[in-house]
Amino acid sequence: xxxxxxLEATLPGSVLAGSPQAAELRSSxxxxxxxxxxxxxxxxxxxPVLLLAAWTFNSTIWGHHIVALNARGYRCVAPDRRGHGxxxxxxxxxxxxxLTDDVAAVIExxxxxxxxxxxxxxxSIEAVNYLARYGSARIARLVLVAPTTPFLMxxxxxxxxxxxxxxxxxxxxxxxxxxxxxxxxxxxxxxxxTPEVTRAWIREMMLNVPLPVVLGCRKTIAFADLRAAAAGIxxxxxxxxxxxxxxxxxxxxxxxxxxxxxxxxxxxxxxAPHALPLTHGARLVSxxxxxxxx
Length: 294
Fold this sequence. Notes:
By secondary structure, this protein is of the alpha/beta class. It has one domain: Alpha/Beta hydrolase fold, catalytic domain (Rossmann fold, 3-Layer(aba) Sandwich). It contains twelve helices and eight strands. It has helices at 3-9, 63-71, 96-109, 123-134, 164-176, 178-189, 196-207, 211-223, 227-231, 254-260, 276-279, 281-293, and strands at 28-31, 37-43, 47-52, 74-79, 115-120, 139-145, 237-242, 265-269. The protein has an eight-stranded mixed β-sheet, sandwiched between helices. A hairpin with a 5-residue loop joins strand 1 and strand 2 (37-43). Helix 2 crosses helix 12 and helix 5 crosses helix 6 (178-189). The radius of gyration is 18 Å and the shape is globular. The termini are far apart. Residues 1-21 have low confidence and may be disordered.
């Protein structure tokens, strides 16, 4: 089964380009500050939804969500992070501020305003940092899905977090045997009934990211302290997370983030893992539509 067949199998209803329901794609190449070319999917018209993907994921994971949101009159913009998917793979630029500047470049060059910013996993640190550095003038709402905010590493003022030694040990494991590490951590990432075709698609996606990029982004996630940035957010915020998230445990991430963002709403999905956009996609779309209609 080739990559296109795998992607098509993940799109409920097989609403694809060429079908009567398909939206027009405006594929874009956005240029980052340092000249890096970023691939961006840009589908449909209407109020924009910007979709930021997880660590080692690219924009194709949003296929079901894009189809569903296009059908309800939303424009969906989904970039491939540098080093991922069809974007350039420079040797540098995997620090938080550069990645955030890339998000800003997408927003500005695609001329997005009144944006609902939907950020999954690693995307959450880019989204929260964007609001701190660039402000909220272009952003109407924020949705954090299985976030890695506000701060994963244990420090004196963040005692109930992950010790630095544990973070370093995990980075060493990934550097030594990335495919083996993925295999060892796959089961809790998905639901038990997640089809093998979906699991294989995600494994291939993750393994296609060069190891230096994998490690650079992983370090950025681990060491990003966004507590002050989260506390300063002034836009309506929805946080969606499963209580079986083994990659970013709810009590360490989403629950803490919700306490920092004034007026935010935390929706907890019982039994949902970190792959929530894939395993609970229909429910997530329903929650997004309800939140955007408020």
